[in-house]
Amino acid sequence: MPRFLANSLEVGPRLRTRLHRFLVWGGAAAVPLLFLAFFFAWPVVALVGRGFFEDGTLDLSGFFEVLSRPRTWRLVGITLGQGIAGTVVSLLLGIPGAYVLYRCSFPGRTLARGFVTMPFVLPTVVVGVAFRALFATSGPLGGLGLDGTFWAVLAALVFFNYSVVVRTVGGLWEKIDPRAAQAARTLGASRTRAFLTVTLPQLAPAITSAAAIVFLFCATAFGTVMVLGGQGYGTIETEIWMQTVQFLDLRAAAVLSILQLAVIAVSLWMTSRARAGREQALDLAPAQARTERLNLSSLRRDWLAVLVTLLVGAGLIAWPLVNLMMSAFRRGDTWTLDNFRALSTTGSSASGSSGTLGVTVWEALYNSVVIAFYASVIALSIGGLVAYVVSRRAASRSGRAALTGLENVFMLPLGVSAVTVGFGFLITMNQPLGLDIDLRSNPWLVPIAQAVVAVPLVVRTVLPVLRAIDPRQREVAALLGAPPWRVALTIDWALAARALGLAAGMSFAVSLGEFGATSFLSRPDTATLPIVIFRLISKPGAENYGMALAASVILAVFSAAVMMLAERLRTTSAGEF
């Protein structure tokens, strides 16, 4: 047989194999990309266009009008100040906590880690109500006059983000080899100097990653600010909601959204670079954890870190939650169950008649659970598919770049405000693609919006586990005759089952407490529990306030229970969230 003919026969099957692989993986990537394009990119781009164009023509007058207002720059200053202050305080308190909880060994450490993590999974509205009960006139700290101030919001943001610093920094700290710091001590360096010159540079990638993530969360906080901020306090995030819902000025809201997107874009870029540095540091660190037994000798040496951690645990985390629980069982100066009994009503209006809410709290909880279930299914399907595609090892540089780009694209909803997503849905889903239908009243729109917010968490949870699978296991299964679908089921998804369970729990908990996007799309008869709590806390009357406290306790307990069950499935290779 001529050589050219033999070569052509060999190339034919090879091309067919490559074409088949391209079609399979391209189709797998196309489904989530279409979802992201329709339910995220299009609403956000339409929102940006609303700020630049008026009746189809370029019109920048809206920018000049909004940016010329002193109020706008005051809101920008508050937003940046809130983000920077929340980040600095979270780092100052979280780094000692990371040392105690991840570098030291003591009885009950696992329980302490879970307790510290709990605030991060609580709905933002619940956190706001807990701190409002603490700082209100009738609360334990009411005499300080902090209700409705920057400091009340800052305390709540640190409460929420403390665990991000502890987990991000602690995850690297427990793997750092202590011999370098010990060598510095042997050469005469003090303990403080050894930490500053040896340990701190080693922790820098994790600290930078934690700082970038915390700043992003603080600058885009919505539910907490809405509950705690009061009339005179606001950020870009809350102003977008105010301009849309109360003033019906969509043009101003669009301009503010563009301004916020610029801040978020910088934050996302910093977060991406910081996360890459942290992942590289984790890859270079030894696989085994290194801890020191906490005893009397180490307590004398590490007394400051232990004291800060205890004060944060007792004062910043436990006190607001315990006070919320106790306040829910009080009305006035008496202990009572009336606040919980009233949950089967729709509250009271200013005139004393019933009808503050469109649904009871129990009906709102049912709505929240059902919506969160569907949102979790959608997020798990889309996020799991993205993680599976991105976890492949591409042979070419262009293939690796494409997979990295796909991963980064699906991280965008993590940084874009949920308020922006909900606002984008509001202006694009009235007649999507020119169809004569209004999807804004469709019950599926709320779980889809919540799924958009939850997809990045699924990807970041499942992807590290899939990447940790030894490719030789797939190769052996394929050599034994298993088709690709069976390899995926028996190797990839079997090993990633625990991570999928954790991702499902996280998606459910995030959707259960989602407030930003839902506040734009929820209808009175299908209101979720966070929406109901906000409406109750916004209305005057002791009965409404008591119902808000009781409903917050129920939502907090439900969310914490879901995450406690999910955390039992966490593996060492699961993502940082």
Automatic annotation (TrEMBL):
Keyword Acetylation appears in the UniProt entry: no
Transmembrane segments: 22-53, 73-102, 114-136, 148-169, 203-230, 250-270, 303-322, 364-390, 410-429, 444-466, 487-510, 545-566
Tagged with keyword Ubl conjugation: no
Annotated InterPro entries: MetI-like, MetI-like_sf
Record domain ABC transmembrane type-1: where: 76-267, 365-566
Subcellular location: Cell inner membrane; Cell membrane
Superkingdom, taxonomy of origin: Bacteria
Membrane topology of this protein: Multi-pass membrane protein
Signal sequence segment: none
Major place of residence: membrane
Keywords annotated in UniProt: Cell inner membrane, Cell membrane, Membrane, Transmembrane, Transmembrane helix, Transport
Similarity comment: Belongs to the binding-protein-dependent transport system permease family.
Name by which UniProt lists this protein: ABC transporter permease
